[in-house]
Amino acid sequence: MNPIATLSALSTADDFAITFAPLSFEEVYTLADDPANGAVVLMSGMVRNQTGGRPVIALEYQAYEPMAIAVFKQIALEIRQTWSDVTHVVIHHRTGRLGIGEISVLVAIGCPHRSEAFAACKYAIDALKQNAPIWKKEWYNEQDYSWVKCC
Prior knowledge:
Elements: H1 3-9, E1 15-19, H2 25-32, E2 39-46, E3 50-51, E4 54-55, E5 58-63, H3 65-82, E6 88-94, E7 96-99, E8 103-111, H4 114-131, E9 134-139, E10 145-149
Parallel strand pairs: 1-6
Antiparallel strand pairs: 2-8, 3-4, 5-7, 5-9, 6-8, 9-10
């Protein structure tokens, strides 16, 4: 891929973040909102109390931030190549230790039509899980844990 073309194809309407701070539905929704939109689809990933039937008390996320942001930007480019009407792509991911029920990732897509917004949002989270350099430590109790590829 031509890096000059890639840079020029990035939209200033998009927003990407890796943060230790809690994520905000309102902030991410607002970043994806636009008068041209007929839909904003927002996907929230959160810490659940089990994985594969095994109790979990917390997840701890680590990321290689520069590469993760580059992956988020690539995902946005791919979304715009497939769904050209998308107005905004917003991807925010947490790092650090998160308890049950805490939000670990928010993905929002703004688009004139709901079907494209849903499809683009699904693509974004699936591509993030497959490609982003983000790892999680699943805590089963205060001593027992296991590192797994996120997300």
